[in-house]
Amino acid sequence: MVDWHHLSDGERALLERLFWTGGLSRGDLAASVDFSKSKANMAIASLLGRELIEEGGVQPSTGGRRPELLRLSHGMGVLAAIDIGATSIDVALLAPDMTLIDHRSEAADVHAGAPLVFARVRNLLRQMRERHDIAAGRVLGIGVGVPGPVAFDSGMLVNPPLLPGWETFSIRDCLAEEYAAPVFVDNDVNIMALGTHWRLRGQLRNFLVIKIGTGIGCGIICHGAVYRGTDGSAGDVGHICVDPHGPLCHCGNAGCVEAMAAGPAIARMAEAAAHAGESALLKELLDRNGVLSPMDLGNASRAGDAAANAIVQQAGGWIGRMLAAVVNFFNPSHIFIGGGVAKVGPLFLASIRQSVYQRSLALSTRHLDIQYVPQVESAGVIGAGVMAVQETMLAGPERR
Q: What number of other Cβ atoms are within 10 A of residue 313's Cβ?
């Protein structure tokens, strides 16, 4: 196991530059940090000697010999990344530079309880390690995302509304039975925000990621880092009230945007429209399958069904109303929309945009861009891996 405590600040700064850029030439790496070229070259030589960085190919020539590209060493070990959703689990093994070694995704029911879910997670990790002949001791760090509020320092869930019974379960202790590597736990939307941040190479400093699925949450990147708040509950926007006369939410309050525009609410509106005879297409789908999903609604909307379009626009409008308040407060440069419900179609995104721009202050939206999460299918596990790298390799001793 690598001893990260003996890294100098300069060495850690170089590792961080390589991580966020994906790789640099020796000259570009030395020039990218705020200390002398000679000190940078000494630190680079030290990192190469300890096999923490390696040469990973050549850059295009600008005249003369093509420079060697330096990157985080694949030989130092691997990272385990786990993304738990309300209805699925994603597990991956990653190299330190976020190269995907293996990735498995499958359906899961979090209501079955944390012990059963994490027994499956451990089995998947074990199968992937055996497939690639990677010993448990080669795992450098483990990142875990869960769909609920997390006290980051302890890694424990706190009153998770979608995960009854999980708050007494220690994810760290469970994984420690098999791995000596440190385990870091955060809520799934913070993980998605970190994955998006890395995909964009850290170029955006202030943005939001909204995950719309069984619940609605927000990951906040503020000044280039995840903002979690005092107790880890920052970004719990699903319980912002958008209609005081709206339906009762599972949190006990009325009119929360999650109760009106998350996946279950959208499915209920679609089924109500089908039963009321407002849509022959939705009625046909309901009769055939017994239930309707947000994806059924999205397919009907793409087919031009008027009732489906009205539901999609209404749900997008509610989410936009909530986001307008957040935009006025935070003034982000970008909002990225992700989660399963985001796939219902372009009308949903258009409705969110229209509502945000209509209700936000002109100054707050002058440079605002609202779009889908880039490469959303792997944002969760990449984000869990980014968290593991940041907390294991790049954090100073005072943060561990």
A: 18
pLDDT at site 397: 52
CA distance 111 to 103: 23
**Inter-residue contact 180 to 1 (CB < 8 Å):** yes
Contact predicate 238/262, CB 8 Å: yes
Max Cα-Cα span within the chain:
76
- pTM of the predicted structure, to 2 decimals: 0.90
Distance, C-alpha 343 to centroid of its chain: 16
* CA 187/CA 233 separation, integer angstroms: 9
Q: What is the CATH number for 8? A: 1.10.10.10
Token code pair at residue 371: 């779009």
Question: pLDDT category, 164, cuts 50, 70, 90?
Answer: confident
Rg of the chain's alpha carbons, rounded to an integer? 23
Segments forming the whole domain that contains residue 27: 4-75
Task: Name the nearest CA neighbour of 188 among 383, 319, 378, 332.
Answer: 383
Task: Provide, rounded to the nearest whole percent, the portion of the chain with pLDDT above 70.
Answer: 95
pLDDT in tens, 279-329: 999 999 999 999 999 999 999 999 999 999 999 999 999 999 999 999 999
What pLDDT shows up at residue 58?
Answer: 59
Domain co-membership, 212 together with 261: yes
Query: DSSP labels for 96-165?
Result: TT--EEEEEEEE--GGG-HHHHHHHHHHHHHHHHHHTT--GGGEEEEEEEESS-EETTTTEE-S-TTSTT
Same domain as 365, residue 285: yes
Calculated CA dihedral for residues 93, 96, 101, 103, nearest 10 degrees: 40
CA distance 301 to 345: 8
CB 207 within 8 A of CB 224: no
User: Distance of CA 150 to CAs 146, 168, 200, Å?
Assistant: 8, 12, 25
Q: Residue 196, Cβ neighbours under 10 Å: how many?
A: 26
Contacts for 344-348 with beta carbons within 8 Å, 24 or more apart? Answer: 344/266, 344/294, 344/295, 344/297, 344/298, 344/301, 344/312, 345/298, 345/301, 345/302, 345/312, 347/301, 347/309, 347/312, 347/313, 347/316, 348/298, 348/301, 348/312, 348/315, 348/316
Q: Which residue, of 25, 57, 75, is where some domain finishes?
A: 75
